[in-house]
From TrEMBL, chain A:
Family recorded in the similarity comment: Belongs to the GST superfamily.
EC number: 2.5.1.18
Protein name: glutathione transferase
Lineage of origin: Eukaryota, Viridiplantae, Streptophyta, Embryophyta, Tracheophyta
Keyword ATP-binding applies: no
Domain GST N-terminal: 4-84
Record's catalysed reaction(s): RX + glutathione = an S-substituted glutathione + a halide anion + H(+)
PROSITE patterns listed in its UniProt record: GST_CTER (PS50405), GST_NTER (PS50404)
Principal EC category: transferase
Pfam families assigned to the protein according to its UniProt record, in alphabetical order: GST_C, GST_N
Automatic annotation (TrEMBL), chain B:
Lineage: Eukaryota, Viridiplantae, Streptophyta, Embryophyta, Tracheophyta
Natural source organism: Rehmannia glutinosa (Chinese foxglove)
EC number: 2.5.1.18
Catalytic activity: RX + glutathione = an S-substituted glutathione + a halide anion + H(+)
Protein name as it appears in the record: Glutathione S-transferase
Coiled-coil residue windows: none
Keyword Membrane on entry: no
Keywords (A to Z) from UniProt: Cytoplasm, Transferase
Length: 238, 230
């Protein structure tokens, strides 16, 4: 095990596991990454570490497991407090960051999921796309308020909200390629467009953000192998 | 701090409002409570304070709104560090565990109680009850681990998980009387049974958790109002 016993149970394609990895990178913490083949079987270590939800990611630090991606990010921020801060220092700004992170997971992510799954009815597909675009416009607006003129949601460096939303960038690019459509682009979401470029190029991100083509292959493979409902379960377990 | 600096938009019947009231009590913070009639027309002040979700509770501190009950509680803990005991544990690992169980209670367990209230089929209800009891079993284990033999999830004092779960005790009693079953009983979940009694008599909670009969009356009134509007 890496120094100080830090291990991440995750999957290379999982945006939730990516959050844990980005947080550790920001703090320059070395860790072991254990790839979980969650589509086939869950490892004994995963089941033992997260018996309640049986999901990745799990961070194991000094033999103690921490579950749920946003809880892991906050834990990393608090344990390695001497590194660059992930959450803002002001309590009100922290509340706003937590609010939008919860929004992304509870309201925005279901819209992404709705588009990733193949639709049988055209009307439902159109409705899902409209909602997705509407949500992105809201986030574009939120970026202006949070960033206060700087490069990231967190200001001049990557913060909590950048990690929460940015972890989905790979999958947004997959959707764009699959649908031959632009979601984050210069005219529709100009702020997110610029932000995405800065985010992807950041040192903490660039080696862990999955390549679009690899993700696309992964998604096509999964959709061939699995039924719709199983894919939905899969995404929920990522 | 003057009362005018802190306002809470909420409803007496809402456990999510109640838990914020408990957090404010734990920190001895004076506040103005503004009752919102959330189940019919939403007031202008609520729509202005929470334009995204239009839900209560909303804490307004120095004219800045904070939404979502768990986020509000953490804000209270971080903004008033000098007032009394911390609400969240001080150790990062214990904080992660507390956050985990708070999320479990809100996202997995309490929704089962709401689902039970909506279902009418016996078999469906029985299936939901099984899940509720399984969840109660997990919460019992969590209590044993977190409390480390002491009175509350947070140890000697009422803390985050105590108020996140404890705020539901009124509605839990309503569910128990409607289902004719005890959710936190002395045989299956002895830890939680003892904890529940201690919690409702604790200073932070005792005038906040509504009486079950008042909640039942309220529930009937809302159902009647829904039925009449179609």
């Amino acid at each position: 095990m890496a120094s100080d016993g830090v291990k991440v149970l995750g999957a290379w394609a999982s945006p939730f596991a990516l959050r844990a990895r980005i947080a550790l990178n920001i703090k320059s913490v070395a860790y072991d990454f254990q790839e979980e083949n969650f589509l086939v079987t869950k490892s004994d270590l995963l089941l033992k570490s997260n018996p309640v939800c049986k999901k990745i990611p799990v961070l194991i630090h000094r033999d103690k497991p921490i579950c749920e991606s946003l809880i892991i990010v906050q834990y990393v921020d608090e344990v390695w407090a001497s590194g660059p801060a992930i959450l803002p220092s002001d309590p009100y700004d922290r509340a706003i960051a937590r609010f939008w992170a919860t929004y992304i997971d509870n309201k925005w992510y279901p819209c992404l999921r709705a588009i990733l799954l193949p639709h049988r009815e055209e009307a439902k597909k159109t409705a899902a796309l409209e909602e997705f675009n509407h949500e992105l416009a809201l986030l574009d607006d939120t970026f202006i308020k949070c960033s206060k003129g700087q490069k990231f949601f967190g200001g001049d460096k990557i913060g909590y909200l950048d990690i929460t939303f940015g972890s989905f960038l790979g999958w947004i690019r997959v959707l764009e390629k699959m649908g031959n459509i632009s979601f984050i682009d210069e005219s529709k979401t100009p702020n997110l467009f610029k932000w995405a470029q800065h985010f992807s190029a950041d040192d903490a991100i660039k080696d862990v953000l999955p390549e679009t083509d690899k993700l696309l292959e992964n998604n096509v493979h999964n959709r061939r192998v699995l039924e719709c409902s199983l894919l939905a379960n899969t995404i929920d377990h990522m | 701090m003057a009362k005018g600096d802190v306002q809470l938009l909420g409803a007496w019947s809402s456990p999510f409002t109640n838990r914020v009231q408990m957090a404010l009590n734990l920190k001895s913070i004076d506040y103005e409570f503004i009752e919102v009639n959330f189940y019919s027309n939403k007031s202008e002040s609520l729509l202005k304070a929470n334009p995204v979700h239009k839900t209560i509770p909303v804490l307004i501190h120095d004219e800045k709104p904070i939404c979502e009950s768990l986020i509000i509680i953490q804000y209270i803990d971080e903004a008033w560090t000098k007032n009394g005991q911390s609400i969240l544990p001080s150790d990062p690992y214990d904080r992660a565990i507390a956050r985990f169980w708070a999320a479990y209670i809100d996202e997995k367990w309490f929704p089962l109680l709401k689902e039970l209230g909506k279902e009418s089929g016996d078999e469906t209800k029985a299936a939901i009850m099984r899940k509720i009891f399984e969840g109660a079993g997990l919460l019992e284990e969590a209590f044993v681990k977190c409390s480390k033999g002491k009175e509350f999830f947070d140890g000697d004092n009422v803390g985050y998980v105590d108020i996140v779960l404890g705020c539901f005790l009124g509605w839990i009693k309503v569910t128990e009387s409607m289902a004719g079953l005890k959710l936190f009983d002395e045989t299956r979940t002895p830890g939680l049974a003892g904890w529940a009694e201690r919690f409702v008599s604790h200073n932070a909670a005792k005038d906040i958790v509504p009486e079950p009969h008042k909640l039942i009356e309220f529930y009937m009134m809302v159902q009647a109002a829904k039925a009449s509007t179609g």
